[in-house]
Amino acid sequence: MLQLPHQPLQVAAVPPQRAPAREDQAGPWHSEAVCRRDEAGLFFAPSKEPTAARLSREESAKRVCARCPVMVECREHALMQPEPYGVWGGLTAAERRVALARRRRRDVELKTSGATDRIAG
């Protein structure tokens, strides 16, 4: 039997994950994310994905998000970054754009009504 010299096992470098915008004192919110145990392909679209397949995949991802204990933190992270791709905190990229537009509109309305109250008062 031929014996080969022992070579140390080489481990491929894993690219670092994108860090969240904030970390709680108990540790980063994403360490508790349910999606860490699922395939990333569920949360991010492959190129040239057909619409029906995309909608089905996004619904599956949202079901994972719905049972996640850090869904709100994940969603806020995705809105504050803003994350341009994937399902984060139960929202697709398109849904996050709508949510951000609503927040901007609400902020403008609040500023406008606050200025009007000061002038009238």
TrEMBL record:
Binding site for [4Fe-4S] cluster: 35, 65, 68, 74
Pfam families per the UniProt record, alphabetical: Whib
Domain of life: Bacteria
4Fe-4S Wbl-type domain span: 34-98
Subcellular location: Cytoplasm
Low complexity composition bias: residue spans: 7-16
Entry PTM: Upon Fe-S cluster removal intramolecular disulfide bonds are formed. The Fe-S cluster can be nitrosylated by nitric oxide (NO).
Reported function: Acts as a transcriptional regulator. Probably redox-responsive. The apo- but not holo-form probably binds DNA.
PANTHER family according to UniProt: TRANSCRIPTIONAL REGULATOR WHID-RELATED (PTHR38839)
Record's keyword annotation contains Metal-binding: yes
Taxonomic classification: Bacteria, Bacillati, Actinomycetota, Actinomycetes, Kitasatosporales
Entry note: cofactor: Binds 1 [4Fe-4S] cluster per subunit. Following nitrosylation of the [4Fe-4S] cluster binds 1 [4Fe-8(NO)] cluster per subunit.
UniProt record similarity statement: Belongs to the WhiB family.
Species the sequence originates in: Streptomyces castrisilvae
Region called Disordered, residue ranges: 1-29
Protein name: Transcriptional regulator WhiB
Keywords for the protein's UniProt record, in alphabetical order: 4Fe-4S, Cytoplasm, Disulfide bond, DNA-binding, Iron, Iron-sulfur, Metal-binding, Transcription, Transcription regulation
Cofactor(s) needed for function: [4Fe-4S] cluster
HAMAP family: WhiB
